[in-house]
Amino acid sequence: MIITFTANPSIDRTADLSTVLERGGVNRVVAVHDGPGGKGINVSRALTLAGTATTAVFPAPAGDPLVQAVKEAEVPFSLVERDVRVRTNLTVTEPDGTTTKINEPGAPLDADAQRTCLDALLAAAKPGDWVALCGSLPPGPSEDWYAQMVAELKQAGVRIAVDTSDAPLIALAGDLDTAAPDLLKPNGLELGQLVGADGPAIEAAAENGDFLPAAQAARKLVERGVTAVLATLGAAGAVLVTADGAWVGNPPPITPVSTVGAGDSSLAGLLLAFTQNLDPAECLRHAVAYGSGATALAGTGVPSPDQVDLDRTSVTELTLD
């Protein structure tokens, strides 16, 4: 079982433009896509399409449009009932795949609601299951809330993945001695923040085919107790680093449509492969192929297995020493 937690869920609205976005001008939308959003929900959507057992845990009012959208996607879920509507996030995509996101802050979670969310995760998971803590935090929780959750979930014997950014990610990095997750999924910029490196330089190097800076930065996190680090590096691919080595994954050729949900699909592909006990190279192949499959879809699209090109996704081992 893979349980996902989305602290700050959303309705994701994607507006497709026929021309380049003009700031301050009138922009004509040619298509609009609405769907259930939030990083953990996206992960569970991809896992559901793959036939993998998953439960999405998230806070929302019982009658919120998000709940109906999750039901329509046939994603199993555990609802933490709240009385404030779920936010709507707007994504604007241009013909070349350029994506602009405008995100609302989300509904507040007080201390009682935070405890209820954690209790829901503990009730859904059993020892050996994966729990993925995904996305930004809404108003209310402290910046180290994910770190606190990791520490308590570890005591329950579950395996933990974290995919977040900014202050919650930095707070988690400061507590790795007691709250090191089994999997951490930063992008290049976030990887730089975590280890005090130059994130833009890491991404630029990867774009030029040099994945060593990303792998070396990820290894620092492994040395601090994180079991595996998946660093997603946009169109260049991704790096997976564990105590056993480092691997680089390069995506298959695609026509980009929208990058929204690509990182979530990468996480879903990796967790799917982990549950199948595949070797690290094959796990990375699944992660990169799933992320690329999402990029070729409109809106907050997540790919089904027949939209994932494993055969043309290449993986090579990287020597760090």
TrEMBL record:
PANTHER family: 1-PHOSPHOFRUCTOKINASE (PTHR46566:SF5), 1-PHOSPHOFRUCTOKINASE-RELATED (PTHR46566). InterPro entries: Carboh/pur_kinase_PfkB_CS (IPR002173), PfkB_dom (IPR011611), Ribokinase-like (IPR029056), Tagatose/fructose_Pkinase (IPR017583). Residues 8-305 form the Carbohydrate kinase PfkB domain. SUPFAM superfamilies: Ribokinase-like. GO terms for molecular function: ATP binding; phosphofructokinase activity. Belongs to the carbohydrate kinase PfkB family. This is 1-phosphofructokinase family hexose kinase. Gene3D superfamilies: 3.40.1190.20. GO terms for cellular component: cytosol. Keywords: ATP-binding, Kinase, Nucleotide-binding, Transferase. The keyword Oxidoreductase does not apply. Residues 301-321 are annotated as: Disordered. The lineage of its organism: Bacteria, Bacillati, Actinomycetota, Actinomycetes, Micrococcales. It holds the Pfam family PfkB.
